[in-house]
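The following record pairs a protein chain with its ligand, pyridoxal-5'-phosphate.
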Amino acid sequence: MQVPLLDLKPQYEQIRGEIQTAIAELCASQQFILGQHVEDLEKKIAAYCQCRFACAVSSGSDALLMALMTENIGPGDEVITSPYTFFATAGAISRVGARPVFVDIQPDTCNLNTDLIEAAITPRTKAIIPVHLYGQMVDMDSVMALAERYQLVVIEDAAQAIGAEYMHRQACSMGHYGCLSFFPSKNLGAFGDAGMILCNDPERAEKLKIYRSHGSSPKYYHQYIGGNFRMDAMQAVVLLVKLKFLDSWTSSRQKNADDYQTLLAKVPNLTLPVTATKNNRHVFNQYVIRILGGRRQAVWDGLKAAGIGCDVYYPVPLHLQQCYASLGYSKGDFPESERAAAETLALPIYPELSHIQKRYVADTLASLCK
Ligand SMILES: *Cc1c(COP(=O)(O)O)cnc(C)c1O
């Protein structure tokens, strides 16, 4: 049996007619950049995330970059984040010329250990980027309390977490900015690159829209040095169709996670993901287990040989990446991130997974982990 890590085709089959009609209409209009569809999408995503304002952009990476740019964060500034995330989180900090300062994760959720943030704050610290890894939110009350005490900007990296909730509050609604990615493999995926920035402050919202088009307002009068961070209308059209299905797809992901939890409960030598508090809505962009006893590579190879797709998010924590050698970190600095990098393994969790496929994954894992 083949069980890919992610298969987008069954999802497309459900909505093919609607998508093709919408794209055909867009082609007839020849309106390709920003425009009415992008504005509609901004309104709908803002409402979905319980935020006042949204700014549609070219990718999740550009969303993070723009949030830092509009806050004038740059050389001499420090930004605190997790070393156990996709590179874009730290890359955005470096691209504006600021310095990423890493804080270790907690072992159960792989999210920032908020107890360790305060010790990393210096007079140069300007912002914190909590990453809601795998679809589960960081302990945001602690982050926001620190941010208030030290006057820091909070930029939520919710690229994996659209629809996630913490104490009944939506991802992107708690920080000063929330950044989403619509990369095709995310829970709400476009037909290419796209992203969005959410915020609740009208001045920030206005500034974001100016930065998105080379800092110009009015046209050809440049207040800031922004960039081309605009979203294609094509992506907006696709996302408007898909957004209607997001909650049902998320429920399927959660059902799959529940099923794995039952099927894998008695398998030795692995740790299953946890939902941190009962008020957390985990949207399972990834279902990530840990393989204990130094056997991850062997188990991964075994799954591959059995036709099961898996991956490691992420194999090298950011403080040990070659491009960050100049930051001066070394092995042992963030032991939980390093242990996670050696133990984690993401299993297939996409909504259309069948029960037979889940059983096959669980049975194969059980025989490999004995
Ligand atoms: C995907 C992702 C991003 C970047 O989003 P793109 O749309 O691919 O640029 C940033 N942060 C995290 C945690 C991600 O998973």
